[in-house]
Hints:
Layout: H1 14-17, H2 33-41, E1 59-65, H3 69-82, E2 87-90, E3 106-107, H4 117-134, E4 145-149, H5 152-167, E5 173-176, H6 177-183, E6 199-203, E7 207-208, H7 211-224, E8 228-230, E9 235-240, E10 248-253, E11 256-265, H8 271-276, E12 284-294, E13 304-307, E14 312-316, E15 322-332, H9 340-353, E16 362-373, E17 379-382, E18 388-392, H10 402-415, H11 428-432
Parallel strand pairs: 1-2, 1-11, 2-8, 4-13, 11-18
Antiparallel strand pairs: 3-7, 4-6, 5-6, 9-10, 10-11, 12-15, 12-16, 13-14, 14-15, 17-18
Bound molecules: flavin-adenine dinucleotide.
Amino acid sequence: MGVVSVKRVRLISAKRELKSERPRVAEGARYSALAILRHGLRGDKDWKRSWREPEPKSGYDIVIVGGGGHGLATAYFLASQHGIRNVAVIERGYLGGGNVGRNTTIIRSNYMLPGNTLFYELSLQLWEGLSRELNYNLMVSHRGQINLAHDPHSLDALRRRGNIMRANGIDAELLTREEVWRLSPNLNFSAAARFPIRGALWQPRAGTVRHDAVAWGLARAADSLGVDIIQNCEVVGFLRKGDSDGAVIGVRTTRGDIRAERVGLAAAGHTSHVARLAGLRLPIESHLLQAAVTEPVKPCLDQVVSSLATHFYISQSDRGGLVFGGHLDHYNSYAARGNLPAIEEIAAQARDVFPPASGARILRHWGGVMDMSMDGSPIIDRTSVEGLYLNGGWCYGGFKATPASGFCFSHLLATGESHGVAKLLTLDRFAEGRLIDETGHGATPNLH
Ligand SMILES: Cc1cc2nc3c(=O)[nH]c(=O)nc-3n(C[C@H](O)[C@H](O)[C@H](O)COP(=O)(O)OP(=O)(O)OC[C@H]3O[C@@H](n4cnc5c(N)ncnc54)[C@H](O)[C@@H]3O)c2cc1C
């Protein structure tokens, strides 16, 4: 049951994209074995703060709204790739308090529509070197993702997706039921299973990344290159040139006005709300997505597993907790909290797909507010308002996209041009009907 054999050629290479001699974390701030020894001998008293708490300046070259993964990655790449360091990231809460710290940590590049495929593959490649580059252990784990098919139709859809991935140089393998069993025997192979396993699409390089380490590592690296990270500061409006329709020349915040030559929005689940402050109506809605984690149990699940029919996904964290989630709540909301009906539904799916989960107690469950764009794909583009740039609509796929998103958004902000792999992720596709209709679907690709 093989996927069409295509010579595996990487059509894009993150290594070629990155400037080899770009600055990394500033010398004095580097973590190393020697630094641990030196600090240990001094009683561990003089570790530097990971990032400063600067007062906002009156103006910057570039202001980024939102200190989540995307805002921080953008600021980091502006400084490291483009040498633009007079940058502020404005965060209304605390770093890591948004979706960057609420997601289920899955990374993958199993997208199949032009616009998404190479963009997400670039992101996966950027994850591969990011811990070293940031001098911060992001715990990138290429444990692989098994995407289960429960019926022949799903298996056909996965075969098509796998072929497209391979044609683009991305790793993908179609597995038989027996091959899935050999990889992950604790899944439900019972003859009485409600969702019988027919086969799966396997992406070996997919996996997980420690989410809050991503926020902290990017913040520390950006700060050490001169970026000001300003927490507890909400953007409540925009400064406009001349009248209220003029170019954006800064932001109004709860800590005063800050001028900027360019402003980049990276406010995730609040994109539409913040854009409205500039008079923009975007093809984005906000929805709640929930997840849960059990108490730690013995190692029993080596991969990320997702199920196409149930839209359920599960992995085991390094601490032993089973981390799982499912569908959106399907009503618009800005409330970042969980509720019992959704958790009951995904807990039932956990029991069906991965029976060992039924014996584990749920330790925590939570929710995050997600930007859902109308075609399920993201937007990295300038807006119709001069000086205002947009990074949003990340839907289910935003965490895995963090490095490529920051890389491409920084390119747009620095050069005024869309980066090659993000050139289809434009805002006008909604007006012109060029949709990238790939609803991302959390850890599971959809059936298109
Ligand atoms: C339960 C759950 C599970 C998920 N699982 C995965 C997964 O496994 N893999 C995956 O790829 N993706 C996943 N996602 C999606 C992913 O987390 C998001 O798409 C992504 O994190 C969004 O980008 P961000 O990190 O920049 O967002 P955020 O961290 O939310 O950053 C946006 C920031 O903007 C700030 N902000 C908003 N308004 C203002 C304002 N007016 N002024 C100043 N600051 C403002 C917010 O406070 C917030 O900190 C999941 C999401 C959830 C909720």
